[in-house]
Amino acid sequence: MIPIRYVEPVFRPPSEAESLILPVTDGCSWNKCTFCEMYTAPQKKFLARGEDEILESIRLTGQRYGGDIRRVFLADGDALVLPTRRLISILEAIHTYMPAVRRISSYCLPRNLRKKSQAEINELAAAGLKMVYVGAESGDDQVLTSVDKGETFDTTCEALGKLGAAGITRSVMILNGLGGKILSSQHAQNSARLANATQPEYLATLVVSFPQGEARFRAGFPGWEPLNQHELFVEMEQFLSALELKRTVFRSDHASNWLVLKGTLGADKARLLQQVRSAIASPEAAHLRPAWARGL
Question: Is 2 a domain residue?
Answer without folding.
Answer: yes
